[in-house]
């Protein structure tokens, strides 16, 4: 069986969509104007991803303002509701990304409590709602659901500007995410993944300087079927490949989709470079537990102007070229490995 490959989720929003969103915020555009451009962007995202050869596509998260805040901002929506709007445009199977309960956990005060609403009650509501988001996505037709866990690496940064990063919350996050995952059967969990990266907003990062060792052994405690792991932009890839191979759970046969594409860099990776990365990783990670992905979503926020790329529209073109070359590179690596 060839090496599996999968996109994370988001794509840059077209300039026209970003313009209409800004006008809506300013009160000079209507919701109908926004929906019209979101529909166009979602349809084009799906079609171009299919043209790139993806066997599992997304709408590029064109209907939300942020991968993290879609349930609580003015949109106040479930991921599966947007999925249902975009699915009619797809010929290929689709996946859906959802926000991790551990990210939303940070909405509750770190040390204080809210009168009449305990942290225990908040956590119970959070787990219920996150389960609903995942189950709703599958019911709407998603073949896979990945949970965005970008706060995992950030939890070890100990940044004085963000007091929670010094509160040793990584294990709390893992336990909380498992509360959701444990509500699914082992068969269901095979199609539920965890995505980790050090950030990707406006071609920047928030926790790239945190050693991966702070995250990786603990991350594999989560009862997910697969993991999407930023690695293309990592300096010491071989050391991380080795640690993944040594610590990924063998009992659950979880698949490590290693990042072979850097969405923050406008330079397009060649299929040969993608293949070389996978061949190198296969020295440490069992081939039947090896997959390929992009380091992060290509644009997790709707207002991302992609400064290193020059414009969101150019960044969209680059993103589809990168996706196409990832798929070609996976084919090359699979042939070289004889699978």
Give unreliable regions as ranges. none
Strand order of the largest sheet: 1-7-6-5-4-3-2
Helix content: 40-55%
* SS-based class: alpha/beta
Encode the helix/strand succession as letters: EHHHEHHEHHHEHEHEHEH
Explain what this protein looks like in three dimensions.
41% of the residues lie in helices and 10% in strands. It has 339 residues and is α/β, with parallel strands linked by helices. It has helices at 15-26, 31-51, 79-86, 101-104, 119-140, 151-154, 170-181, 186-189, 216-219, 237-247, 271-281, 312-337, and strands spanning 5-6, 95-99, 144-148, 192-196, 226-229, 255-261, 290-294. Helix 1 (15-26) runs antiparallel to helix 2 and helix 3 (79-86) packs parallel to helix 5.
Task: Outline the fold blueprint.
Blueprint: E1 5-6, H1 15-26, H2 31-51, H3 79-86, E2 95-99, H4 101-104, H5 119-140, E3 144-148, H6 151-154, H7 170-181, H8 186-189, E4 192-196, H9 216-219, E5 226-229, H10 237-247, E6 255-261, H11 271-281, E7 290-294, H12 312-337
Helix pairs in contact: 1-2, 3-5, 5-7, 11-12
Give a brief description:
The chain contains twelve helices and seven strands.
What keywords describe this structure?
339 residues; alpha/beta; 7-stranded parallel β-sheet; 7 strands; globular
